[in-house]
């Protein structure tokens, strides 16, 4: 569902003060006497996420305090103040004009993100506290970012019965229509003829109405070229290497890479970045049937590299391989893939960090700086060349699932790099799911790395 917008009734907005324990006394001393006494009587200590509504002299609502916690608490959480949106009484609030610009911007974006509710299947009440866009921030930019994140969350949260390859294609077409992009989809029956054999192999076991396809969207007429490739495995049974039930429960999110690149594309198009954008999404369902691809099969690829299948549950890198090879043929200035690719990445960095790979130190530094500015944490991982031998089985050019279980995220990234070469390339091995609620990040589907990349675009692509 769309997130709330900023409120416009600035003149009647209630004061909202963000407070740390260190500056609590100074903040209290500046309040009206009744509000100050109330805060003291309630024992407000400005702990992280603490919220206190303050009365006016007539017993109505004067405003509110929101605790940020001490430095340690702030380091352990993002969007601390945004949680107030779901805790405060109904009303329109305005941040203290003295709020630091970075904090005001983070709070404003977090307020929009906190208002997200996935209500397709059950009614959910939205927060009733609204925020006026703080002075000095780019409200339009924050709206675009929040809308892109809402799209990503909606797509991931939708169960596979209602978000198969056809529905993912429809979502991409709707986005293209909204912003005047062009879109072409290669259907299952044309995948082999168009030399996309890996996409076909992974998706061919699915039901006819869930057949594999490649979605190809383009937007923009001038500027540097950017190609985004998103893994669109709408449900992953594991194929003939069937997942256990506990591992299959969240596989509706296995198209999280596709959802994230569509959300990022929406941000780019909504704000009219001067680039030429291409989005490639191999959309499949990894199913089990008589036609399923098998362990031990050796598959052809668009790149001309043969791939031995040692695990049909390592299918994401296969569909991405053909899409990356196709994208590389146009030699874009930058190509980025995003995928819910490996459990190894989750073991390495957990669900909160987006690990990424790039050979370009300058790109890595730009992404890391941008991530810190927008509270979208990332962590660089190595394209470790000595592990290349692990993905070379001998019987074929490449192995889709090296035995032993070591360095699983790295070997997957090395596999993908073979198909992206020689293009300047970055790969994100994301989780796409928030396992427990946090301010501005409810439990469920979530974008990872998209805001960091969007913030980094001017530096990555040399935009003015």
UniProtKB/TrEMBL annotation:
EC number: 3.4.11.1
A Pfam family hit: Peptidase_M17_N_1
Keyword entries, A-Z: Aminopeptidase, Hydrolase, Manganese, Protease
SUPFAM superfamilies (UniProt xref): Macro domain-like (SSF52949), Zn-dependent exopeptidases (SSF53187)
Top-level taxon of origin: Bacteria
Classification via InterPro entries: Leucine_aapep/pepB, Macro_dom-like, Peptidase_M17_C, Peptidase_M17_N_1
Methyltransferase in keyword set: no
Domain Cytosol aminopeptidase: 311-318
MF-aspect GO terms: aminopeptidase activity
Record's keyword annotation contains Lipoprotein: no
Family, per entry: Belongs to the peptidase M17 family.
Protein name from the UniProt record: Leucyl aminopeptidase
Organism per entry: Limimaricola variabilis
């Amino acid at each position: 569902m769309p997130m709330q917008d900023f409120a416009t009734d600035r003149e009647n907005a209630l004061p909202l003060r963000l407070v740390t324990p260190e500056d609590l006394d100074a903040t209290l001393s500046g309040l009206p006497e009744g509000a100050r006494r109330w805060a003291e009587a309630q024992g407000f200590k400005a702990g992280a996420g603490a919220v206190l509504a303050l009365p006016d002299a007539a017993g109505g609502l004067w405003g509110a305090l929101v605790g940020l916690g001490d430095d340690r608490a702030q380091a352990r959480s993002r969007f601390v103040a945004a949680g107030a949106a779901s805790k405060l009484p109904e009303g329109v609030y305005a941040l203290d004009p003295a709020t630091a610009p970075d904090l005001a911007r983070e709070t404003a974006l977090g307020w929009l993100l906190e208002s997200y509710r996935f209500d397709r299947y059950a009614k959910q009440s939205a927060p009733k506290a609204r925020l006026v866009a703080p002075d000095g921030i780019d409200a339009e930019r924050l709206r675009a970012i929040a809308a892109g994140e809402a799209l990503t969350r909606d797509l991931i949260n939708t169960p596979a019965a209602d978000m198969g390859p056809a529905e993912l294609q429809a979502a991409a077409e709707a986005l293209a229509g909204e912003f005047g992009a062009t879109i072409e989809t290669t259907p299952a029956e044309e995948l082999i003829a168009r030399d996309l054999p890996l996409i076909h192999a992974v998706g061919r076991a699915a039901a006819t109405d869930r057949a594999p396809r490649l979605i190809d969207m383009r937007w923009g007429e001038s500027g540097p070229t950017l190609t985004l490739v998103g893994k669109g495995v709408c449900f992953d049974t594991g194929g003939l290497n069937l997942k256990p039930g506990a591992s299959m429960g969240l596989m509706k999110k296995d198209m999280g890479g596709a959802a994230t690149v569509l959300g990022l594309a929406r941000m780019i198009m909504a704000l009219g970045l001067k680039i030429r954008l291409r989005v490639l999404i191999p959309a499949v369902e990894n199913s089990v049937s008589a036609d399923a691809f098998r362990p031990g099969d050796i598959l052809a690829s668009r790149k001309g590299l043969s791939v031995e299948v040692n695990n049909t549950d390592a299918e994401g890198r296969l569909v991405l391989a053909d899409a990356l090879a196709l994208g590389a043929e146009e030699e874009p200035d930058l190509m980025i893939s995003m995928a819910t690719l490996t459990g190894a990445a989750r073991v390495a960095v957990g669900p909160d960090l987006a690990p990424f790979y790039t050979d370009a130190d300058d790109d890595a530094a730009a992404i890391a700086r941008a991530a810190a500015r927008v509270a979208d944490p990332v962590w660089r991982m190595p394209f470790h060349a000595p592990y290349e031998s692990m993905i070379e089985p001998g019987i074929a050019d490449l192995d889709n699932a090296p035995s032993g279980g070591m360095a699983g995220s790295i070997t997957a990234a090395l596999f993908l790099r073979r198909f992206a070469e020689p293009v300047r390339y970055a790969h994100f091995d994301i989780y796409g799911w928030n396992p427990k609620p946090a301010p501005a990040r409810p439990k469920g589907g979530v974008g990872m790395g998209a805001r960091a990349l969007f913030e980094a675009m001017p530096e990555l692509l040399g935009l003015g």
